[in-house]
Design a protein that fits this description.
Layout lengths: L2 E6 L2 E7 H9 L8 E4 L6 E2 L36 E5 L5 E6 L4 E5 L3 E4 L3 E6 L10 H13 L6 E6 L5 E6 L4 E7 L6 E4 L4 E5 L3 E6 L3 H6 L5 E6 L3 E7 L2 E14 L3 E4 L3 E7 L3 H6 L5 E14 L3 H10 L26
Antiparallel strand pairs: 1-2, 1-3, 3-4, 5-6, 6-11, 7-10, 7-14, 8-11, 9-10, 12-17, 13-16, 13-19, 14-17, 15-16, 18-21, 19-21, 20-21
Length: 338
């Protein structure tokens, strides 16, 4: 008879037969993430990998006493582990909870409110390389200034006792995206003004697009932000957020609507149809083309598009503006007060 062993509460249990293992699953005493072992297996494995154990068509497993259990070594986290809560709908705010000694970094002016006990300090650099010298920090700050951001980042630290909260608000109508970089390949590329806040240890840098055409016509220029680390980050975008998973296919999007993408995605710019479509189609001359394996986030209302609408409806010189909903539109000004 084949015998199995399983781990429960860090204790080895067994041997049990394959039928008994199935009964444990049916009773809820064995979960997919619990480790199991039988004779012939090189090491312990999650129960979910046992064929038929969590599905109707099961093949009865088989076994013998296990070797000593070896725990895989976990690399220590570089970033502080923070928890968070997002409030609101169209004008969102993210509350980040810090334990004593924990720190979150944010763009200057992004803080909305904070608990007593939170201290803040503007620093040159993101703090991901504490041993960097003054020239290294100056270089990192200079790269941030290329993107139009401040030379400094603000560091918020819980200097009190017990958990404390600090909140950051989106600067214009839209959504906040919360992402654990440790589960997203350790890196995220995003538009240059998308970064809002991140756990201390996150590297906030820049990256240059590889193609000349991407730089001239990509909407975001040559420069994109690159966030690296293994902790929580928060980015914001306008309107509604659309998340797409690419599995090798090609995806085209308006250049201004692209917010961020994970490693494995190739970003390039291609012409938008024929000459007539480019001139009269109203969709711009070029579209962003995304290929590869990974996740893409899109926004429905780029800030540039929102700003254009506001400027178009702002009062003109002399204090006159077009009446909202006017049928005459600009012709109405001809009959206005003299």
């Amino acid at each position: 008879m084949v015998e199995w062993y399983y781990m429960k509460n860090d204790q080895q249990v067994g041997p049990v037969s394959g039928q008994e293992l199935k009964r444990l699953v049916q009773a809820g005493d064995l979960q997919p993430a619990d480790l199991v072992w039988k004779d012939g297996m090189a090491n312990w494995a999650p129960a979910s990998r046992v064929s038929g154990l969590f599905s109707p068509s099961a093949a009865a497993p088989a076994a013998s006493p296990p070797p000593p259990r070896t725990q895989p070594a976990r690399e220590p986290r570089r970033c502080h582990e923070v928890t968070y809560e997002i409030h609101g709908d169209d004008m969102q705010v993210v509350e980040v909870e810090l334990d004593p000694g924990e720190t979150v970094i944010a763009e200057a002016g992004g803080m909305n409110y904070m608990d007593d006990g939170i201290t803040f300090e503007a620093k040159m650099g993101d703090g991901s390389k504490p041993d960097a010298g003054i020239f290294g920090k100056l270089f990192a700050g200079a790269k941030r200034m290329i993107t139009g951001e401040s030379l400094f980042l603000t560091h918020f630290t819980n200097a009190g006792t017990g958990p404390k909260r600090v909140a950051f608000a989106a600067p214009y109508p839209g959504k906040i995206i919360a992402l654990d970089l440790g589960q997203a390949g350790g890196e995220l590329t995003c538009q240059k003004d998308a970064f809002l806040a991140a756990a201390l240890g996150t590297e906030v840098g820049i990256t240059f697009t590889r193609r000349l055409g991407t730089g001239f016509f990509g909407g975001e220029g040559f420069i994109l932000q690159r966030l690296r680390g293994d902790g929580m980050i928060f980015v914001h975008a306008g309107g509604t957020i659309i998340k797409r998973e690419l599995t090798g296919e090609t995806f085209r999007v308006d250049t201004g609507c692209l917010v961020a993408f994970t490693p494995g995605i190739e970003y390039s710019i291609e012409r938008a149809g024929n000459l007539k479509s480019m001139i009269f189609g109203g969709e711009g001359l070029f579209l962003a083309t995304l290929r590869g394996q990974g996740t893409v986030w899109l926004q429905t209302l780029p800030f540039s598009r929102l700003a254009d609408r506001i400027i178009a409806h702002a009062p003109r010189q002399g204090g006159k503006k077009r009446g909202e909903g006017s049928v005459l539109g600009g012709l109405g000004d001809l009959f206005g007060d003299r």
